[in-house]
């Protein structure tokens, strides 16, 4: 059950990537002038999002494979512990975190690629807003505000997922077969990661004007 919950959390968190990317692409497409080479058809946008969804689900499947092997190792450890001392049974030859390190590396690499792409799209979007002649001042201000809100919202997974995950990975890599005292800071990192969904929801409600007004009206009732 615990493994299933962890896999579900990874799946839901990974699916934030296509959602954010769809928002960044939509912001960019909304400010492009007619005839721009950067205009994407609905089919192209769908294919981009579909590929990101497949990658997000693929991360969950990768975790499923790793957990299956971890489950087999746990059974082996139980057998060994009945015959040898626990400290000897948990030696590096029996308990290898290398594949979990690969999973974390894949997560960090994927998020870094997403950050770079989102930054590039944002820079291009603000450039279009600055020099666009096809948008009225009202539409330009609205799109500029929504783009800034989107960037602020996207900082949440950056600060609560990518950075703690990178720190945990940096601790696991040199000490994967050594001292166990690094388990405390690693646990703190994953505790921070677990707050991502709640914090993101709060930021979404407070930073998006239409959601903020609806929330205020709901509390007034």
UniProtKB/TrEMBL annotation:
The chain crosses the membrane at residues 46-68, 100-126, 147-172, 184-211. The keyword Transmembrane helix applies. InterPro entries: 7TM_GPCR_serpentine_rcpt_Srh, Nematode_rcpt-like_serp_H. Keywords: Membrane, Transmembrane, Transmembrane helix. It comes from the Eukaryota. The keyword Membrane applies. This is G protein-coupled receptor. It comes from Pristionchus entomophagus.
């Amino acid at each position: 059950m615990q493994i299933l919950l962890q896999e579900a959390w990874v799946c839901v968190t990974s699916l934030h990537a296509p959602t954010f990317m769809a928002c960044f692409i939509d912001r960019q497409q909304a400010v492009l002038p007619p005839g721009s080479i950067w205009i994407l058809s609905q089919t192209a946008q769908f294919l981009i999002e579909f590929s990101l969804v497949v990658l997000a689900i693929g991360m969950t499947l990768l975790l499923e494979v790793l957990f299956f092997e971890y489950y087999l190792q746990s059974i082996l450890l139980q057998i060994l512990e009945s015959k040898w001392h626990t400290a000897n049974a948990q030696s590096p030859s029996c308990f290898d975190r290398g594949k979990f390190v690969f999973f974390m590396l894949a997560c960090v690499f994927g998020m870094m690629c997403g950050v770079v792409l989102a930054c590039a799209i944002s820079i291009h979007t603000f450039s279009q807003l600055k020099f666009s002649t096809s948008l009225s001042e009202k539409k330009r201000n609205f799109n500029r505000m929504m783009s800034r809100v989107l960037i602020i919202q996207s900082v949440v997974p950056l600060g609560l997922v990518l950075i703690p995950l990178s720190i945990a990975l940096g601790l696991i890599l040199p000490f994967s077969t050594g001292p166990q005292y690094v388990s405390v800071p690693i646990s703190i990192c994953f505790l921070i990661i677990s707050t991502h969904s709640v914090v993101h929801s709060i930021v979404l409600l407070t930073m998006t004007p239409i959601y903020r007004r609806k929330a205020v009206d709901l509390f007034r009732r």
